[in-house]
Amino acid sequence: MDKEEVVSKNFIEKIIDQDLEEGKYAKIATRFPPEPNGYLHIGHAKSILLNYGLAKKYNGTFNLRFDDTNPMKEKTEFVESIVSDVEWLGAKYDGDIKFASNYFDQMYEAAVLLIKKGKAYVCDLSPEQIREYRGTLTEPGKDSPYRNRSIEENLDLFERMKNGEFEDGSKVLRAKIDMASSNINMRDPIIYRVARMTHHNTGDKWCIYPMYDFAHPIEDAIEGITHSICTLEFEDHRPLYDWVVQEIGYEHPPKQIEFAKLYLTNVITGKRYIKRLVDEGIVDGWDDPRLVTIAALRRRGFTPESIKSFMELVGVTKSNSSNDYAMLEYCIRNDLKPKAPRVMAVLDPIKLVIDNYPEGQVEYLDAMVNMENPDLGYEKVPFERELWIDRDDFMEEPPKKYFRLFPGNEVRLMNAYFVKCVDFEKDENGKVTVVHCTYDPITKNGTGFTGRKVKGTIHWVPVHHCKKVTARLYENLVDEEKGVYNEDGSLNLNPNSLTVIDDCYVEPAIEKYKRGDSFQFVRNGYFCIDTKDSTEDHFVFNRIVSLKSSFKLPKK
Ligand code: ATP
Ligand code: MG
């Protein structure tokens, strides 16, 4: 290991180093335990890459386990999307996919064991009473009148709970810990409840279900997980986690470690909030490119590499903070810069006519696919008398330092010739419709030398040899400075989060690419062919990111 790596170890790696050194575990085992109640988002990507990365670095194992102990909100659709997202990120799980629900028998046995040890009891208090008896942060709780039931009675009642003899919510099984604990989680927490719900995996086999805080440590222990990594809100639950694995008597009990969740500025990350946007029809499904679900990021054109390098930049910490969205943009730009073919595309077209270029003539000019990556070779671009250029690249009355087209000025057409503006036409509203130029044949790209210099280079697309496409430009859905919520609790959405441009023109080279491929539209940003809305004949492009950056990598 080189010096650099030693220096950059995060706090979790330091814990693992020590555990291995002390011989606590022979090998490490991590897991990613999503609840299949929604699509994964960029925060989950952090957890996946962290857990997988640690397993890989320490030559350990990494499990993918569905935490499906709450049948209410769970769906097979979510299981499928999660598996494909984890695979897309390149996190390879060991063995089969695991399901917490496959351990229901062992969880039941563990509960029986606790009862036999006098460490759990069946309680008949109503949910309201349980809350009342629990006390507050400043006041201790009160013992339940059912706390001292005999072991035999508890065993009998718990079995009858399982057999469906009691109404939903009428009885619970509670761990017998300490009603006066300063940690409310330790005040006889509920570990099993009666709930008649059909489970997507176990069907109607069970009418009692374990609570998360009881189930999770057992799942980890059964799988031999060594480091159970979760987010900070579980810190106060750790004593209960430790209590469960200790009372059940696992030999090499797993250890819970908490880290800070990933948040992004001006981006909605929580699963609950994303679900609301989807359910209210504000976005076009879980993979709407304006979201930061993994499915949406993938559809927008982000790559697994860009997400990995973003996570490396962000690091792993124990204090909550928000990361700049521009940092994620920086990472995707960096990744695509050498990889993505560059094509000329015009998003806001006006026509340029080269008056002295023969009508009907077409010549094929050479253009490098990517100036920064000569290995990608050359592409032929057809050139003709009529071209589309971007409206921005012509001005009737230019301000100072405007070097593009204006009457009398000469510019370079990218990969082609110098052209000089000689005239222009306007419609009845005063809008420029056509720009007239003349070209100088001797200035052909890479050939003749005139000694003349021009300051501006503009891109173009041949009018009769191009593809018409749709382009979608995005902005963030919310702006924290303007407030994420309105007074009535509704979301204060950015009305410009989506702009659809229907008459864009792209050079014909685009035809040989497929859905999901990404490009740089020169001077306009990186774009990806949408996988959902594109057809064979009509491509829809999502702008992944613009070319300009407001983010600078901090100096080390
Ligand atoms: P959300 O907070 O968005 O509702 P969740 O925590 O309910 O998500 P789970 O399916 O329970 O979603 O999470 C699976 C794993 O992903 C957990 O270990 C959880 O701690 C982790 N995780 C969830 N959100 C983030 C985040 N923003 N940053 C890092 N890890 C996260
Ligand atoms: Mg959760």
UniProtKB/TrEMBL annotation:
<keyword id="KW-0436">Ligase</keyword>
<dbReference type="InterPro" id="IPR020059">
    <property type="entry name" value="Glu/Gln-tRNA-synth_Ib_codon-bd"/>
</dbReference>
<dbReference type="InterPro" id="IPR014729">
    <property type="entry name" value="Rossmann-like_a/b/a_fold"/>
</dbReference>
<dbReference type="Pfam" id="PF03950">
    <property type="entry name" value="tRNA-synt_1c_C"/>
</dbReference>
<keyword id="KW-0547">Nucleotide-binding</keyword>
<protein>
    <recommendedName>
        <fullName>Glutamine--tRNA ligase</fullName>
        <ecNumber>6.1.1.18</ecNumber>
    </recommendedName>
</protein>
<dbReference type="GO" id="GO:0005524">
    <property type="term" value="F:ATP binding"/>
</dbReference>
<dbReference type="GO" id="GO:0006425">
    <property type="term" value="P:glutaminyl-tRNA aminoacylation"/>
</dbReference>
<dbReference type="InterPro" id="IPR020056">
    <property type="entry name" value="Rbsml_bL25/Gln-tRNA_synth_N"/>
</dbReference>
<dbReference type="InterPro" id="IPR001412">
    <property type="entry name" value="aa-tRNA-synth_I_CS"/>
</dbReference>
<dbReference type="GO" id="GO:0004819">
    <property type="term" value="F:glutamine-tRNA ligase activity"/>
</dbReference>
<dbReference type="InterPro" id="IPR000924">
    <property type="entry name" value="Glu/Gln-tRNA-synth"/>
</dbReference>
<keyword id="KW-0963">Cytoplasm</keyword>
<keyword id="KW-0648">Protein biosynthesis</keyword>
<dbReference type="InterPro" id="IPR049437">
    <property type="entry name" value="tRNA-synt_1c_C2"/>
</dbReference>
<keyword id="KW-0067">ATP-binding</keyword>
<dbReference type="GO" id="GO:0005829">
    <property type="term" value="C:cytosol"/>
</dbReference>
<feature type="domain" description="tRNA synthetases class I (E and Q) anti-codon binding">
    <location>
        <begin position="457"/>
        <end position="530"/>
    </location>
</feature>
<dbReference type="InterPro" id="IPR011035">
    <property type="entry name" value="Ribosomal_bL25/Gln-tRNA_synth"/>
</dbReference>
<dbReference type="InterPro" id="IPR020058">
    <property type="entry name" value="Glu/Gln-tRNA-synth_Ib_cat-dom"/>
</dbReference>
<dbReference type="InterPro" id="IPR050132">
    <property type="entry name" value="Gln/Glu-tRNA_Ligase"/>
</dbReference>
<keyword id="KW-0030">Aminoacyl-tRNA synthetase</keyword>
<feature type="domain" description="Glutamyl/glutaminyl-tRNA synthetase class Ib anti-codon binding">
    <location>
        <begin position="340"/>
        <end position="440"/>
    </location>
</feature>
<dbReference type="Pfam" id="PF20974">
    <property type="entry name" value="tRNA-synt_1c_C2"/>
</dbReference>
<dbReference type="Pfam" id="PF00749">
    <property type="entry name" value="tRNA-synt_1c"/>
</dbReference>
<comment type="similarity">
    <text>Belongs to the class-I aminoacyl-tRNA synthetase family.</text>
</comment>
<dbReference type="InterPro" id="IPR004514">
    <property type="entry name" value="Gln-tRNA-synth"/>
</dbReference>
<feature type="domain" description="Glutamyl/glutaminyl-tRNA synthetase class Ib catalytic">
    <location>
        <begin position="27"/>
        <end position="337"/>
    </location>
</feature>
